[in-house]
Amino acid sequence: KAPAKAEPVCSWTAPAAGNTVTWKAFKFTEKTGVGGGFDTVKVAGAKAAPEPWKALNGLTFEIDTASVNSKNPERDAKLVASFFGALTETAAIKGTVKATSADAATLTITMNGASHDVPVKLAKGEGDALTMSGTLNMDTWGGGPAIAALNKVCDDLHKGADGVSKLWPEVEIGATVALQKTCK
């Protein structure tokens, strides 16, 4: 009788590139979403882990704010100049990931000279990818003046049916980390 073949032992790690970050901001009193992402996201600190979600622990990320992409170049220029330009340390949003379970993590996000924790949900994406989703409030990072600056340059574009120009401080965020699986 042949010996039983051992089950493969797998590990997961996060690549430095190929990860995506998305956002959805809200305008009008009726809170209509406008979405986009960033074209340049750097990930570092990857370590192999025995479970996919554990591969997120300790990851650091840096998002190039000038790479904002809403599929509208005119809007993107306003976001870079009037929103990110009104923040301190405008070139990047930085952070770390602490995965706490297969379906939850905490992001420590640093922007506008402040760091705050944001709870996010984890879910399985396509293939071996994991997705994160959550909501942040720009007021937590002192971003009220940046929201006001962007709303001022987009005044008419942010007027809803009631004629009120409104840009909400809440932003839905998302990320996909395309984990690499290795089995031996």
What does this structure look like?
The protein is mainly beta. Helices cover 11% and strands 43% of the residues. The model has no long low-confidence stretch (mean pLDDT 94). The strands form 2 sheets. A 10-stranded antiparallel sheet has the order 4-5-7-8-9-10-11-2-3-6, with helices on one face. Helix 1 crosses helix 2. The chain is built from 2 helices and 12 strands; from the N terminus they run E-E-E-E-E-E-H-E-E-E-E-H-E-E.
| Mean pLDDT value | 94
Q: What general outline do the C-alpha atoms trace?
A: elongated
- What's the arrangement of strands in the largest beta sheet? 4-5-7-8-9-10-11-2-3-6
Uncertain regions spanning at least 5 consecutive residues: none
Largest sheet: 10 strands, antiparallel
**Rg over alpha carbons:** 19 Å
In percent, how much strand structure appears in the residues? 35-45%
Class from secondary-structure proportions: mainly beta
The share of residues in helices is: 10-25%
Compute the number of helices: 2
Order of helices and strands, N to C?
EEEEEEHEEEEHEE
Task: Count all strands and give the number.
Answer: 12
What is the end-to-end distance?
24 Å
